[in-house]
Amino acid sequence: MQNYIETNHLDFSFGKLKVLNDLSINVSQESIYGFLGPNGAGKSTTIRALLGLYKTKENHVKIFGKSINNENLSILKRIGALVESPTLYDHLSGFDNLEITRKLRGIPQNRTSEALKTVNLLQDARRPVKHYSMGMKQRLGLALTIISEPDLLILDEPTNGLDPHGIIEIRELLLFLKKEKGTTIFISSHILSEIERIASHVGIINKGKLLFQGTLEDLREIGVSTVYIETSELEKGLKLLQENNFPLAKLNKSNMIETDIENKEEINKITRLLVKNDVPIFGISNSKKDLEQLFLDITKEN
Amino acid sequence: MTSSIITLKNSVFTEITKQKKTLALWGAILAPLFVVTVNFLIFFSHPELLEKAETNPWLKIAGNASNIYSILMLPLLITLVAFIVNNVEHKANGWKHLFALPVSRPNIYLGKIIVAAGLVFLSLALFDVFLILSGKLLASLHPEIHFENFAMNNEIIITSIKIFLASLFILMIQFIISINSKNFLVSIGIGVAGTIGTSMVLSWEHSNWIPYALPMWASQDLYKMDFSFFKEVILYSIAGSSIIFAIGLTFLRKKNIN
Do B256 and A48 touch (CB under 8 A)? Predict the structure, then answer.
């Protein structure tokens, strides 16, 4: 599968302040890529660099395999983007707002009403945007991005400021676009639980550095942290583990052997080792950090 | 049509859509209406200023109105138009959206300038229409004034075109300020200071080099019955506005868009 987004050791500074540091992101065509990080981590800066709004060095940003510096118009033709709050002309109607983008893109007239229908705003299309609720504005902002039926959607915190109902609506819309139109989606957020529900891939950024990149499963894998073993042969089991790659294994208060592990494979190793040496296992369990905790840990360590 | 001309046309049309219901369009209509109305009331209440048989009443009413319009009203209108055309994006956080569309930055830039210039041109065209109508109304209300001996429609229109060309320098200065500054006080403040300041030093021998004075100098040609376009003030205005246009475009191409 082609990488739709590729940044190659991307750096970006405002004067002396380095805001992106050696950032290498890869977003494949089939993914919904959640781009996570606390506020001020560099998410919006990255998105502006992807879109060519911030000028970057040659070949540091490639979209659809082409450099954003050289072929920005042909790239932007295939992208729908929402950068921070949507661009809405308050004094105009929702319809006129969409028409402005439609005309600039030079796409057929019927796309305006189709986009309005997709975001469920057909009824309110003729009202001035200044009378729209926050959720309606956000949906209209999304309509601006999907009006051209893009191959790639780049969305910067699209659920910012929405109530739970609004968040669900946006989520369902994105899942619909992925399923029905095959749209590749790059979505940034500072809320992990939101990304967790839709993303197939995750990138975690803090202070301009990419700390993790992989599938959601890869991320969960990191989250497996501690194994608890119930046995009648506590001393023997403990010694075995300590001598075989688990030096930090210990007895805990509940009279179980407890050890930290790095991945699920190690659970298999532990059970094989104990069984092979005739240590009976009455129970084995592991605790997973929830993703929220993991996200906090990853971004805190940096 | 080549694709860049089509996108430029689209860019202009979308800018026109954005100006719906804004003060810029109303300004372009009301500014000439106001000046011509006051001008009409002056001559309506003092027809004796125009009554002499050898006096060309058109020259008097057109000269007076053009003078006031080009010294004060037009530069202030240009300040307002340049501010609104750009502020519509500042207010909506629109630059990032516009420049993330498959439209080149020069196209967006040029589209905005064309619409701003179009509004200034519209105001001058309306100025001519209102002026000629006010003259005809005056002729019917005061038959003692000898309008019938003179006709000046073409000369009035030519002078307005010259005033328009002479005003492009101010337009580009105000445009560059407004595209770069969100601040109402900066754009409007510089425009008002430039206009008022210039009106105070018009008698200075070098005032024909002040951009804000150029429309007034172009309007003076009406009195001189000089209808040539190859005039210093016009060439200076076109050269000055072209240089600012080019500088603004170079900056915009390289600019990081927030």
Answer: yes
ipTM: 0.86
Residue A77 sits at the chain B interface (C-beta within 8 Å): yes
B190 is a domain residue? yes
Contact B14 A104 (CB under 8 A): yes
**pLDDT digits over B113-163, tens only?**
999 999 999 999 999 999 999 999 998 998 888 777 788 888 999 999 999
| Residue of chain A with shortest Cα separation from B88 | A89
**Which residues face A187 on adjacent strands?**
A34, A155
| B2, B7, B9, B97: best to mutate for the A interface, most A CBs within 10 A | B97
Instruction: Compute the distance between CA of residue B43 and CA of residue B51 in angstroms, rounded to an integer.
Output: 10
**Which of these ranges, A9-13, A97-101, B20-24, has the smallest mean pLDDT?**
B20-24
pLDDT of residue B38: 97
- Cβ contact B85:B112 at 8 Å: yes
How many domains is chain B partitioned into structurally?
1
Determine which helix (DSSP H) or strand (DSSP E) holds A22, and give its type and residue range.
strand A17-23
Residue A210 has pLDDT above 90, yes or no: yes
Asked whether residue B72 is domain-assigned, the answer is: yes
Listed residue (B117, B248, B113, B242) closest to B181, CA to CA:
B248
Letter string b/e over residues A108-124, b meaning 16 or more CB atoms within 10 A of that residue's CB: eeebbeebbebbebeeb
pTM for the whole structure = 0.86
Residue B234: inside a domain, yes or no?
A: yes
Region of residue A22 (left: phi > 0; alpha: psi -120 to 50; beta: else): left
Residue A132 confidence (pLDDT):
94
Residue B143, token pair as written in the block: 């038959």
Confidence of residue A224 (pLDDT cuts 50, 70, 90): low
Looking at the domain assignment, is residue B17 inside a domain? no
For chain A, which domains are there?
A: 3-219 (3.40.50.300), 224-301 (3.30.70.870)
Q: Give the whole-angstrom CA distance, residue A5 versus residue A154.
A: 10
Sequence-distant (≥ 6) Cβ neighbours of residue A42 within 8 angstroms: A19, A20, A23, A205, A206, A207, A208
**What is the helix (H) or strand (E) element at residue A35, kind and residue range?**
strand A32-36
CA atoms within 13 A on the CB side of A263: 5
List chain B residues with CB under 8 Å of A88. Answer: 92
Q: According to the model, what pLDDT value does residue B88 have? A: 95
Question: Residue B1: pLDDT above 60?
Answer: no
Q: Determine contact, residues B109/B225, Cβ cutoff 8 Å.
A: no
**How many C-beta atoms surround the C-beta of residue B235 within 10 A?**
13
Per-residue pLDDT at A153 exceeds 90: yes
Burial of B151 (0-12, 13-18, 19+ CB in 10 A): exposed
Contact A89 B18 (CB under 8 A): yes
Report whether pLDDT(A56) > 90.
yes
